[in-house]
Design brief:
The complex is a heterotrimer of chains A (206), B (645) and C (376). Chain B is an alpha/beta fold and 645 residues long. Chain B is built from 22 helices and 24 strands. In chain B, helix 10 links the parallel strand 10 and strand 11. In chain B, helix 2 runs parallel beside helix 7 and helix 10 crosses helix 14. In chain C, 31% of the residues lie in helices and 22% in strands. The chains are: A alpha/beta (206), B alpha/beta (645), C alpha/beta (376).
């Protein structure tokens, strides 16, 4: 299949967020980028009822050898990409470990209990402190805010995919993204997505 | 063209389990596919409908699973290849016909795919469809990875034709909704012609009449088919073994649990101690194959979801063959090694294996685990499921709740399955008080409505969705009208089967193939049955509430209120704002008497947030979909909406 | 504003009034917020409110009412337990020639006074009670003619004050109110600014109280009358002065239904049985029937504001005034005193009177001395 040596096999990515943020799309696109490179990829995801404002999670297992379980075993995430900041904390409690890398979109989506005043939401500083403590490396990216500037908040997921590709553990880049996306996306939407992807790569340099 | 049909033989592709099933059916040359939407099964019919034109497929969303199975059966009876798809609940609905079908037998390859939902990730039960295979004496296959999901589906059609019996392929959420690489096979060129033959010898399976009688003879035939299946399964390549010749422990598993088990063995580094027997044919089990593997070990663990189906069947075979294979120690659900409820995952298998094998396993350093858990408690507030921003159900249940409170006689609502199920919680103002199967709200209400003679004077309401109305509510409504039950049925008509991804239903003017079809009008059905019918837009909160109170007070019999508003995620509403909405901070009184944060604390649309610093409500521009309903609930008129031109 | 430690909000209102079945559905807590609604005569709490001190509690005439505070606020004198409350004078009266043919009750004085007050702009609008069938409907009217449409007694307990709350919310001031004793008491509480709000203004220009022995629960009354008379076509309901002991219900086709009062008393809300006010003591003017004179009213003038309007209305021919015969006055005092004694004894027996003046939640606050005097 592929000659590329993964830092770990299987290499485990978790993409998390809130229903409606484009979590599934992000995991699909990124996985297709990897499949094009010859990897076995297994994605496990929850959607359906959990889509309705609940936490959603995609587990991506990347291997040069075989298909793995659609659920990552506890403590075995290598990188966590989160479209909503506190969801990263939730995922790390299940799948984190001292070596994990975390990429966090900084835009909060408040849970119903927070909006209602029954629960409280931590400050961004508190979230950053927690994620830094629970990871080997943490990046904070204003993906939604940047996407709003691009004219469509949903592109936040693509910005995060760009950022993920810039972590450097996996041999994928812009060309793979373009190829993977063109399988499913109409041509007129490509430009915006490519801009978002590039922006994600760019933001990781800062 | 879809990537499910355009890839060449031998291509490797990343597909969802459900798409693998689709590809398998296409490679088998399926002609007719039917089903009723239900997570996690819906993508199968959806994807088949997308590719239907090219291979001349007929695909339909049927009104319910029983009818779907009957529709597919007609194709099989006509020597076509037929597929019928449903989630676990659907098998219960279809089971009456399924029992008779198992007796009558089939002609063209007939495969029923059931997608179970262990752990009830998207269900209100974690029912097991596998037991139907044993109960109804029909063959059952369970794919253990994505490639098998495709290959096994294809093979199931051949098997069905060989046995002249329906074959069940059982998937689970983590198989159907997970994705993996598969290698495509060939798409067939063969075209079949439909013909129903009935004028041969009556009992001839190919040219006679298709019935389940004479029962004794047919039942014998049916069991003969099962015996034949058992023979075939002895050599079936979907039953695989990996591990040492004589393992310390034989782990027998099926479906997604195979992937968890394999992972667990790998994580524990126990590859040379554990033998992994993955069964693809879980009913009937092949006794010789089992005996071979059982005889090579003393300890046997069985990992499966949800109930101990495989476990019990293996134990029966082990008992029958005990003289040859010896006495075994079994680990599984019955002895508590594996949980008896909920879905499995690698960690549960790791825990079971490490305890049986005596391996110490710590997934993460203790200190890290402690810190992470503490962080979740302190800094990750629970995220409960809520109606989407702009969801008509929030408005509908707000009005239902208010009408019942104002009525003040302890009225209550019987519900059923759909997004509106969430009205048991705060997002729907805790309005639902009973919740069971499709259409059950109406049926239970019909019963409650007859308890007046025993002193019940509480108003009785039921809710159902539009798709559910056609699926199972009509008989309940007939029952209520005919038996003079005094109830109010609220049909939450959001113009599609919203929960499962917006599949069309009989109320719409197009079908899943995009063809124009006659819509069946809910209001006219209800009027025809003899109910009083009102139609309201749930976004007219006060008008809806008034109508509800009026209907609740009308004691003349069955009243139906159709709340008509398309789902916020529907094609006609998605990404279209009716209004731009903002909060005028100078008017918002926040926590003061007269409001008490009514919009954010009570109404709870995710598009409205509370700015604690300013002590004012605020619109979250990224989340708000511009339905404008909140402007009507603000007691101060501080929420302003302007129509989008 | 510093929050009080002791909560006086919706939760307490629910516990001490609604759950204790003291609510008469007067409407004082309705339309102040989205949490309370009135429907078919019943007050409903739709959702829990978390405001510590709510107007709902502060305005409610059935919880923690400090009669002495109200009396001092309205009349500048302590509450002394007089059966008829504080007043300046009592007269016999009837509507004058300027207002003929009004389908009103007895002497038509309430309609005449409010019509006059509105016409002369003593009030900018009036909160009244209309009805549809048997269902009482609160109304805010600004045209004198509309007062006449609301004439005649309703007898069913009504959320009249919800219309007041709406009118105040819309910025109306100098409002006229016609209400029963519980509604008038709530109005007095509203005007006393019980929450000490900076922006609170007294919204009332004239409060006319009605004599009331009890009201009828609409939700019981409607099924009670159903089948006996066409409810949508009831023209008028009347209880002739004693000793007739009947209620008369008139249909529009001339039909008349007579119902013994002991049957009607079964339909009275529980909350009415604790009421100690027959003559709407906390009004500007109180009006009721005059025993033995079905076409006359008894009028109690309590405030200077009320007296000026009465005098002017009489001068302009809207009212005729005469002296109330002594025996009528004595009977009124006797009847009002009886109601006080009955209500107080019941409330005291159930531990609902606060004589300590502390924060204990109760129905009434009253001094031990006056309580003893009234229940002796």
């Amino acid at each position: 299949m592929t000659a590329y040596r993964l830092p770990k096999d299987p290499y485990n990515i978790i993409i998390t967020g809130v229903g409606g943020q484009g979590n599934v799309m992000a995991s699909r696109v990124f996985s297709n980028m990897l499949v094009q490179k010859g990897f076995f990829v297994t994605i496990g995801e929850t959607f359906g009822a959990s889509q309705r404002g609940g936490s959603v999670m995609s587990h991506i297992r990347v291997s040069s050898k075989s298909t793995w379980s659609p659920q990552v075993p506890k403590g075995k995430a290598d990188v966590v990409v989160t479209l909503e900041p506190i969801e990263a904390i939730r995922v790390l409690a299940g799948y984190g470990n001292p070596a994990v890398k975390v990429l966090t979109n900084t835009r909060a989506i408040y849970p119903a209990g927070v909006i209602a005043g029954r629960l409280s939401y931590p400050s961004l500083d508190e979230i950053k402190e927690t994620l830094k403590k629970l990871s080997a490396r943490a990046w904070f990216i204003d993906a939604t805010d940047e996407a709003v500037k691009l004219g469509n908040a949903i592109l936040g997921n693509i910005i995060m995919i760009g950022a993920l590709s810039a972590v450097g553990d996996l041999p994928v880049g812009r060309g793979d993204f373009e190829a993977a996306l063109s399988r499913t996306l109409p041509a007129e939407k490509m430009a915006d997505n490519l801009t978002a992807f590039d922006l994600g790569v760019e933001l990781m340099k800062q | 063209m879809s990537y499910l049909t355009d890839e060449k033989e031998g291509a490797s592709c990343l597909v969802m389990g459900n798409e693998a099933i689709v590809r398998g059916a296409l490679e088998a040359g399926v002609n007719v596919a039917s089903g009723y939407p239900g997570t996690p099964s819906s993508e199968i019919i959806e994807n088949l409908s997308k590719v239907a034109k090219e291979p001349n497929l007929y695909v339909e969303w049927s009104v319910n699973e029983k009818v779907a199975l009957e529709v597919a059966a007609a194709a099989s009876f006509s020597r076509l290849r037929a597929l019928c798809v449903m989630k676990q609940n659907g098998v219960n609905v279809a089971s009456d016909f399924l029992l008779h079908l198992a007796g009558s037998g089939t002609r063209g390859g007939f495969v029923m795919v059931t997608c179970d939902d262990p752990g009830a990730l998207s269900s209100v039960n974690e029912g097991e469809s596998r037991f139907f295979a044993r109960l109804l004496e029909i063959p059952l296959l369970e794919p253990g990875n994505f490639q098998e999901a495709k290959d096994m589906t294809k093979w199931a059609f051949d098997l069905s034709e060989e046995l002249r019996q329906i074959v069940v392929v059982r998937s689970v959420t983590r198989m159907s909704h997970a994705s993996g690489n598969i290698t495509y096979g060939r798409l067939p060129a063969e075209k079949r012609r439909a013909e129903f033959r009935f004028d041969g010898f009556a009992l001839d399976p190919d040219e006679g009449i298709i019935i389940s009688a004479p029962v004794a003879w047919k039942h014998q035939q049916q069991q003969e088919k099962i015996r034949k299946a058992r023979e075939i399964f002895e050599g079936c390549p979907f039953n695989t073994y990996e591990g040492p010749e004589r393992p310390d422990l034989l782990l027998i598993t099926s479906s997604a649990c195979y992937l968890y088990s394999r992972e667990a063995v790998n994580v524990l580094g126990a590859e040379d101690r554990v033998g992994l027997l993955k069964m693809g044919t879980t009913w009937p089990l092949p006794p010789k194959l089992l005996a071979k593997h059982l005889s090579r070990t003393d300890k046997v663990m069985i990992v499966e979801e949800v109930l101990p189906f495989l476990e019990e069947n293996v134990k029966i075979l082990a008992a029958e063959q005990a003289a040859e294979i010896g006495v075994k120690t079994f680990y599984g659900k019955n002895d508590g090694t594996i949980p008896m409820t909920g879905e499995m995952n690698p960690d549960l298998v790791i825990a079971a294996l490490s305890s049986v094998l005596g391996i110490d396993y710590v997934p993460v350093p203790e200190e890290y685990g402690r810190e992470a858990q503490a962080s979740v408690i302190a800094r990750a507030p629970n995220r409960e499921q809520v109606f989407c921003p702009g969801c008509p159900h929030r408005a509908s249940f707000f009005s239902i709740h208010n009408a019942l409170e104002m009525d003040n006689r302890q009225g209550f609502v019987c519900g059923d399955i759909g997004c509106y199920t969430m009205a048991i919680g705060s997002t729907g103002f805790n309005t639902l008080k009973t919740l069971h199967s499709m259409g059950s709200g109406a049926g239970i209400a019909s019963g409650f409505g007859k308890l007046g003679q025993f002193g019940m004077d509480q108003p009785i309401l039921a809710v159902c969705g539009d798709s559910t109305f056609y699926h199972a509510v009509i008989p309940a409504l007939v029952n209520a009208v005919h038996n003079r039950s005094n109830i109010t049925l609220v049909v939450l008509d959001n113009s599609g089967t919203a929960m499962t991804g917006f599949q069309p239903h009989p109320g719409l003017d197009h079908n899943v193939l995009g063809e124009a079809v006659p819509p069946i009008d809910i209001a006219r059905i209800c009027e025809g049955i003899g109910a009083r019918v009102e139609i309201r837009d749930p976004f007219d909160l006060e008008g809806t509430r008034e109508t509800l109170n009026e209907l609740i007070e009308d004691t003349s019999g069955v009243k139906v209120l159709i709340m008509r508003k398309a789902c916020a995620l529907s094609p006609q509403r998605k990404n279209k704002k009716d209004y731009t909405v903002h909060v005028d901070e100078t008017i918002c009184i926040g926590e003061e008497c007269g409001c008490g944060r009514f919009c954010t604390r009570i109404f709870g649309c995710p598009g409205l947030i509370w700015n604690a610093e300013k002590q004012k409500a605020e619109i979250d521009e990224v989340i708000c979909v511009g339905c404008g309903v909140c402007a009507d609930i603000c007691p101060q008129g501080a929420i302003k909406r302007e129509e989008v031109a | 504003m510093e929050k009080r430690v002791i909560r006086r909000g919706q939760e307490e209102l629910k516990k001490y009034v609604l759950d204790a079945r003291l609510c008469t559905g007067c409407g004082a807590c309705i339309d102040l917020c989205p949490y309370h609604r009135s429907h078919r005569g019943k007050t409903a709490v739709l959702f829990p409110c978390v405001v510590d001190e709510g107007r709902c509690f502060a305005y409610c005439p059935k919880v923690d009412v400090d009669l002495d505070m109200v009396s001092r606020h309205l009349f500048g004198r302590p509450y002394d337990g007089n059966p008829l409350g504080s007043y300046q004078s009592i007269s016999a009266t009837r509507a004058g020639g300027r207002l003929k043919n009004v389908a009103s009750q007895a002497g038509g004085v309430v309609s005449a006074l409010m019509y006059f007050a509105l016409e002369k702009r003593y009030v900018s609008g009036a909160v009244l009670t209309d009805r549809r069938g048997l269902l009482p409907l609160p109304r805010f009217v600004t045209v004198p003619q509309d007062v006449l449409a609301c004439a005649a007694s309703k007898y069913t307990a009504a959320p009249t004050l919800s219309a007041l709350n709406q009118a105040v919310e819309k910025g109306h001031r100098n409002i006229g109110l016609v209400g029963t004793p519980c509604q008038v008491l709530a109005a007095a509480l509203m005007s006393s600014n019980p929450l000490k709000a900076d922006d609170c203004v007294n919204p009332f220009g004239l409060v006319i109280g009605l004599f009331c022995t009890w009201a009828i629960d609409f939700r019981l009354f409607e099924p009670f009358l159903a089948g006996r008379i066409e409810i949508d076509r009831i023209r008028k309901i009347d209880i002739p002065p004693p000793p007739s002991e009947i209620m008369e219900v008139f249909g529009d086709s001339g039909t008349k239904l007579e119902i013994p009062l002991n049957e009607i008393r079964e339909l009275v809300p529980n909350g009415c049985s604790y009421c100690i006010d027959m003559t709407s003591e906390f009004s500007d003017l109180s009006v009721g029937v005059m025993e033995g004179h079905p076409d006359m009213n008894t009028l109690i003038i309590r405030t200077d504001r009320g007296r000026r309007i009465v005098e002017e209305a009489a001068q302009e021919g809207y009212l005729t005034l005469s002296a109330l015969p002594e025996e009528n006055r004595e009977h009124l005092i006797w009847a009002a005193g009886n109601k006080k004694k009955r209500g107080l004894s019941k409330a005291r027996g159930e531990g609902m009177i606060n004589t300590q003046g502390n924060e204990t939640k109760s129905y009434l606050r009253i001094s031990a001395e006056i309580l003893e005097g009234l229940t002796a």
